[in-house]
From TrEMBL:
PANTHER family: P-LOOP CONTAINING NUCLEOSIDE TRIPHOSPHATE HYDROLASE (PTHR13696), PARA FAMILY PROTEIN CT_582 (PTHR13696:SF52). Residues 7-179 form the AAA domain. Pfam families: AAA_31. CDD domains: ParAB_family. It comes from the Bacteria. InterPro entries: AAA_dom (IPR025669), DNA_Partitioning_ATPase (IPR050678), P-loop_NTPase (IPR027417). Gene3D superfamilies: P-loop containing nucleotide triphosphate hydrolases (3.40.50.300). This is AAA domain-containing protein. It comes from Streptomyces thermogriseus.
Length: 270
């Protein structure tokens, strides 16, 4: 069996609406543009990432989703759920996805079942060996679904909207990941909290500037990555379920932001 080269990264925050899903879809695109192969796993019952990447749930042609993968938990079963993302061009060749749908909520009730937190890790065993990155879009919670992703991940990153609640949610996520007890109970003692990534940053707001200035003291200067500005073009791409590249020159600034972010990931997450 080949050794897994994929670096698994779980993106989270204990607060919703911080730009987490937008970061996952855009960083996946940027990694693909760098020539890397990426597997995206939607671990949120809202399934926003699945829709944005062209794989929404359709009753007339249902796909195998994260819910079925986790329900089984058998070694390697995640292979049955992998499909190319719904975007065209190089993205369909380099980005695959395990989509989600609303019934993923049903897995939460299984949290007390022995071994349940390891189901996603087992399901992915041997499946993502040939990908460069596996990205998990976590639910905005520290509950069972997020723990399933963290149990399978090598690294965790927090998306941090520079407002009070966004920072607090990121701190709770960081503290959960860094707890030796939590990592041991998830069966993943080697999990590393890698970065706090400021997101949806509005340079016009004094409050954002203030909270940005506090992040190095909270998370450590080397773990605060370059900020992701708030731009309407990201929302436009998400609404239309297309990559930023399809929006032409008006997306150039944000494509460059994510290109820089992707190169940092490639360099630092080894």
């Amino acid at each position: 069996m080949p050794q897994r080269r994929s670096k698994r990264v779980a993106a989270g925050n204990n607060k919703g609406g911080v730009g987490k899903t937008g970061w996952v879809e855009c960083i996946a695109a940027a990694l693909a543009e760098e020539g890397l192969k990426v597997l995206v796993v939607d671990v949120d019952p809202q399934a926003n990432l699945s829709r944005r990447m062209g794989r929404p749930y359709r009753k007339e042609s249902p796909l195998v989703t994260t819910a079925e993968v986790i329900k089984s938990g058998e070694v390697g079963v995640a292979a049955d759920a992998i499909v190319p993302c719904g975007w065209g061009g190089i993205y369909s060749q380099r980005i695959d996805i395990i989509p989600s749908r609303f019934d993923l909520e049903n897995r939460i009730s299984e949290a007390a079942v022995i071994g349940s937190r390891g189901r996603l890790a087992r399901a992915l065993q041997g499946v993502d060996d040939e990908y460069d990155f596996t990205l998990f879009d976590c639910q905005p919670s520290l509950g069972h679904l997020t723990q399933l992703a963290l149990a399978a991940a090598d690294y965790a990153v927090a998306l941090v909207e520079p407002e009070y609640d966004g920072v607090e949610g990121a701190v709770r996520f960081r503290d959960f990941v860094e707890s030796e007890i939590n990592r041991a109970e998830m069966g993943n003692p080697g999990l590393v909290f890698a970065a706090a990534i400021p997101s949806m940053v509005d340079g016009r707001l004094a409050g954002h500037a203030h909270h940005l200035s506090t992040l190095p003291d909270i998370f450590g200067e080397d773990r605060v990555w370059d900020p992701i500005p708030r731009r309407s073009v990201v929302k436009d791409a998400a609404d239309e379920a297309i990559p930023l590249a399809e929006l032409g020159s008006r997306a150039n600034e944000m494509r460059e932001v994510f290109r820089v972010a992707a190169r940092r990931m490639i360099k630092e997450l080894v």
